[in-house]
């Protein structure tokens, strides 16, 4: 059960890592839109200045949104790599810490990805929430499943023990 949970955690983490790449690409496009539009507006003398006065602040806000999304993705990648190192380590304490943090992160990702099921907005918000489910909800579900399996196996081993080991120890004592 622990091996299956480790496999599920790894699959969910890798799926999340590959899902962050298109989000990071989109954020870089948001960051680069301001200079692109401004260079296009430079071609039109008076109309370009007039349009720039209307959309200048909006372009800065779009670029700031792109920067914040990119920063969030980079922090997420670092956190995912640390979780993978903890889960795949040989130290039981680090494995347990990695699975607890994966459970929390996976539940948050699942909750964010489940937004389309709780609130059915119309228009472009449906598209955004659907993409959240695809990019975050599926991997969050896999991560939560793996973490719950590991924690269940850990508690069963801790409180119930492994019957096969006890039988082998008793058999060796008798012989």
From TrEMBL:
The chain crosses the membrane at residues 12-33, 69-87, 94-112, 132-156. It comes from Spiroplasma chinense. The lineage of its organism: Bacteria, Bacillati, Mycoplasmatota, Mollicutes, Entomoplasmatales. This is Uncharacterized protein. Keywords: Membrane, Transmembrane, Transmembrane helix.
